[in-house]
Amino acid sequence: MKNNNSSNSSVSFPKSRFAWLWENMEGRRGLFTVALLGTVLYNVLQLVVPYFSGRLVDLFLELNDTGASISENAHTFYVLIGAMVGLTLFRVLVVYLTCMSYEHVSQYVLFKIRNFLYNKIQRQDMKFYSTYRTGDLMTRVTGDLDAVRHNIAWVIRSIVESFTLFGAAAVYFLIMDWKLALSILVISPLIFVIVFRFRRTVAPKHALLREKLAGMNTYAQENISGNRVVKAFAREDYEIAKFGRANNDFAETNIDTHNTWLSFYPYVESIANLMPIVLLVVGGVFIINGQISMGEYVSFSGLIWAIANPMRQMGNIMNEFQRFNAASAKVMEIYYSEPEIVDAPDAIPHPGRFEGSIEFDHVSFRYEDGNLPVLKDVSFKAKPGETIAIIGETGCGKTSLIQMIPRFYEPTGGRVLVDGVDVSRYKLEDLRKNIGLATQDVLLYSDTIEGNIAYGVSHLTAEEVVKFARYSAAEEFILKMPEGYDTIVGERGVGLSGGQKQRISLARALAIEPSILILDDTTSAVDMETEKHIQHSLRGLDFNCTKIIIAQRISTTKFADKILVLKDGRIIEEGSHDELIAQGGYYKDLVELQLGESVEALKASAG
Ligand code: DUT
Ligand code: MG
């Protein structure tokens, strides 16, 4: 698998990140808006309490006899205290409810996008799967998506919070005393300059960090699923060291990313700390001059944090926002990806069975990432019910050829026709439902044997499962299994031999009673006797079916109506077993090689 998808964060998407989030919030947009308003509200309320304390000071403390003034104005005093306590409690309630709402909305969006992505990934074509590494895809639906969630639950909230707090405090200061307010606020733009510089430094680090994480996940995923190979070559230490390096690399990148803020932090902190000093000096002078009251000064200094803290918080927010930026690009890339092989807009529906005729009409093909043509001007026909065998040395293009029939790939030249119609004209689902495919590397699901056989037709009865197991000569070994057809196989179940797996995969392909059956080296791992049984049942299937069989053994190809000999992507010989032997070419040599005797000698001994 290639890794050419690592850093295309510059790709453009149909929607901006925020428009995309908004789109996925559908159903919870109202709640999210209310939460945002709640955030604005509780931050404004944060300023009201200091306002009241300022009023208290002015009303009572500035007088000479505080005790006497409190007892005289007891009513006002208690109202002010009560309002402060009441407002604080109310504010806590609003904070609680808004936090719950953000969490709820973020989980809702996470759930929605994750399902959407899974759906997207399921429907991708072969090219997608050879482009993206599994570990990378896993990272997108887990870690990256979580960064998106975090953006809703925390980053957006923090931005609104900081700006409200700062804005409200600034307005409040300006109303109280614009000169004192300006002398403090004039410092703040400096912080924005620093934070934007920080953004430029940290953004590429987050992109890198995200790649390292995906890389590490890919190592882990490949080594866990490929652990038999690791063991076979006794490469555990090597793999552990390799993972250790990836892990270390990730940790270091992480530290580096977080340290980035540390190099900006002293400036921001100094500027933030400058504000109370300015207040002390300028405010002090203003009090002496009588320009502001003591109470106003108390309100100012009680609120100076509302200006300074959002400034301090900016770095943190920017950091998390860049993480979201890097991650969301990865998520959106999959979100907006489209398979290249899709139904034509005017695709022909074909709900029923196909007759099963196949025609390759001057088909050529090359893989997008390969530079050599894999198929060159391949033409042949198969009538409904016929058996076509394809033989040829490894890498000559057999698997590539059969992948054109279910449209896993599309020819770069020529056409593939099924029932006389170009396969690209059918609806993909209708076409593929009619094709039973047993691939070269067998993958069984962690499910019962019965479940695996019935994978393509969930309503298959137990009798039918047995029937298809018999066709593929699998019944005997299945019955010897601890729980017969209910034995769990696959990753966590009992192990099966290569030939056993092949037979289950053959039964699975047969179970859909396809109009076209494609077997890619499906009997390569079974013994001659079993293969004979399979060949026999394939000839006697109780449904009509055109068969394309890729094989290496003459015993498999012998009974085919037509044998195609493929060499370097070209058909070099074509005909029945006898015809090809008579022709005396590659096929005849192969027969002799496999039988260990010359054809002539065999004929003579047969008499
Ligand atoms: N190839 C690619 N990309 C792929 C698959 C194959 O470039 O995703 C190349 C490898 C090979 C050629 O295409 O050179 C044909 O491969 P194919 O898998 O069709 O060969 P085969 O005839 O099925 O070989 P085997 O008998 O080993 O299965
Ligand atoms: Mg192959």
Brief rundown of the structure:
With 607 residues, the protein is α/β, with parallel strands linked by helices. The protein folds into two domains: 17-335, ABC transporter type 1, transmembrane domain (ABC transporter transmembrane region fold, Up-down Bundle), CATH 1.20.1560; 352-434 and 548-607, P-loop containing nucleotide triphosphate hydrolases (Rossmann fold).
List the helices and strands and how they pair.
Layout: H1 17-24, H2 29-61, H3 66-72, H4 74-122, H5 126-131, H6 134-176, H7 178-185, H8 188-225, H9 227-232, H10 236-289, H11 294-335, E1 358-365, E2 375-382, E3 387-391, H12 398-402, E4 413-418, E5 421-422, H13 428-433, E6 435-438, H14 449-453, H15 462-471, H16 475-479, H17 498-511, E7 516-520, H18 528-539, E8 546-550, H19 554-557, E9 562-567, E10 570-575, H20 577-583, H21 586-595, H22 599-606
Parallel strand pairs: 3-8, 3-9, 6-7, 7-8
Antiparallel strand pairs: 1-2, 1-4, 4-5, 9-10
Helix pairs in contact: 2-4, 2-6, 2-11, 4-6, 6-7, 6-8, 6-11, 7-10, 8-10, 8-11, 10-11, 15-17, 20-21
The structure holds deoxyuridine-5'-triphosphate and magnesium ion (MG).
Residues 398-399, 440, 520 line the site of magnesium ion.
Main β-sheet description:
6 strands, mixed
- The secondary-structure class comes to alpha/beta
- Structurally, the number of domains stands at 2
Number of strands: 10
Helical content stands at 55-70%
Q: Indicate the low-confidence ranges by residue numbers.
A: 1-9
Beta fraction: 5-15%
Q: Could you say which small molecules are bound to this protein?
A: deoxyuridine-5'-triphosphate, magnesium ion
CATH topology label of the largest domain: ABC transporter transmembrane region fold
